[in-house]
Sequence to fold (500 residues):
Amino acid sequence: MRLHFDFDHVDHTFADVIQGGWLTSHEPGGDWLYGADIGIDPGFRNRGLGRALYAARQEVVWRLGLRGQVTAGMISGYGAVKQRMTADDYYAGVVAGDIVDPTLTMQLAVGFRARGLIANYLDDPVSDNYAVLLVMDADQEVPGASRTQARSHIRLNTEIPGPRARDILARPSGRDARRPRPRHRRRRRACARRADLRRGWQHAHRSRGRSGHARGRAHAAGGCRCDREAGREYIHTCALVTSYEPYVRLAEILNEITPGSFAKKTMLANSGAEAVECAVMLARKFTGRPSIVCFEGAYHGRTLLALSLTSKYGLFKSGFGPFAPEIVRLPMPHVYRTPAGMTEEQYVDFGIRQLEQALVAQVEPSAIAAIIVEPVQGEAGFIPVPPRFLARIRSLCEQHGIVMIADEVQCGFGRTGRLFAVEHYGVVPDVIITAKSLGAGMPIAAVTGRAEILDSAHLGGVGGTYGGSPVACAAAVAAIDIIRQPECPCPCATARRRDA
Fold:
């Protein structure tokens, strides 16, 4: 609570109370917690705010080993009756329990002892400038205060995980009744709720955010109004350490909207390249196989493995080798460049034969972990994969137990007229990678696929410190809502319409 007082122009206020006034003269040689009460707006009374304040103060007393707390509280009900009784009579009646005062009665019930009436305390008609000197010794128990918690840096309000955390962790996602996130992503069964520059709140307990709070958790947030709302709650918690609502919500949505009637799970990353690497790692872990098949014209990112999968050499790869092994690159039939003397159908047939021959001449199907393909190749010239060629990839994957990965980082989220480009083909991949449009400018990517594939990695095997940032997750949820609906549900849309 940050307050400003005009110490230079107001007489008998907190300046006198704290700076050598009544409170400091109570026990000049004692170690007491001194304080001056702040009145609670009538609209917020009877909500336990005052009791919580005194409980927190008493825990400070216990933690620091002080003798107790001393305060000066107004008799906030006296102003209304001052015409018919004296302040001394009112004070005596409240202390005896015959009169109920909105403030003093509550303070006495908490455990304070009234030590005397103070005249000319401050210029306030609700108390006719009177206040009461109040003392609470350290041996006084206060409702809501815990000696055990006072001696600990962690304030434990419920069991771990708490009731709201259990609700988030148990939430169904699409057709999968289990958690929407792969189990290897989280080490602690706790869910973050909000944070500020000093403290962290969880639905169960605090989170350190995996060494990411050098400037404070909610230091700044910008962009879309929805993003800023999320930033006011927390900017970073680290999904490897704790769960939080925006991550779970985005995972639920992705599990719902990606093609496929099987149980799905989602993990979040920072970029498309990182998501590509995680998808390949999961495919290798799930199948126990090393090799990855990719295609000419493909672009999958600029990190080592993703760059190894990327096709264009001069533009992206020159001078950056050596590259990752166990990668097989095959031709992609681009019908806009059908060779002379061939029809488009013949060219696609030839491409399918090359694909099938490669599984004999270049790599055994039993050694292939995944085939990764962009349904529309962006860097190749925005070239859609021929439908029969993509269907043959799907059938070969099913035949040989190969994971089919659709990289929709560039072509996904409405850019082809449907949420996912692969929906135009009637083909369902095992894993779909999304990024770019997913976050509408915020750094986020996702790997969504069969639950058994996402669950295959060991605890902590995939993921990163900033993957699935709460702010980026909130932006992604808003972006998906906008793309899925013609009318934007985000408050930003209302603001744009008003400004226009």
Residues 272-434 form a domain with the Aspartate Aminotransferase; domain 2 fold (CATH 3.40.640.10).
